[in-house]
Amino acid sequence: MSMCKPDFQQAFKLGQKSVDAQLIVLARPNGLTRSRLGLAVAKKHTPRAVDRNRIKRLIRESFMHHQPFNIAIDAVVMNRTGTAQNNNQQIFQSLVNHWRKISTRLEQQDI
Length: 111
Hints:
This protein has 111 residues and is of the alpha+beta class. The chain has a single domain (5-99), classed as Ribosomal Protein S5, domain 2 (2-Layer Sandwich). The chain has three helices and four strands, in the order H-E-E-E-H-E-H. The chain has helices spanning 5-14, 49-65, 88-110; strands at residues 16-19, 23-29, 36-40, 73-79. A four-stranded mixed sheet has the order 1-2-4-3, with helices on both faces. Helix 2 (49-65) packs across helix 3. The protein is globular, with a radius of gyration of 13 Å.
């Protein structure tokens, strides 16, 4: 099951936000049995297709391998200007930090 337009809109409107110099992550509980990922890797910020594809691949890989979430979420990840200049390890570490931050915020919401 993939995210459709209304799901994206709900994540943008109601999602917990995590921002750093490379990426913006929005996430919210989805009430389903599994987490879903939406990508918004903008051509405006990353003109070369090869760089956009690399960023998307790293985001998908990180999402699959580092899901510390106790509940299923909808997450949307957006790139920022200059993301493509970072190496894979820097982008991957940024994502790990985002997942931790989002997980902590969502757990605090449940309390």
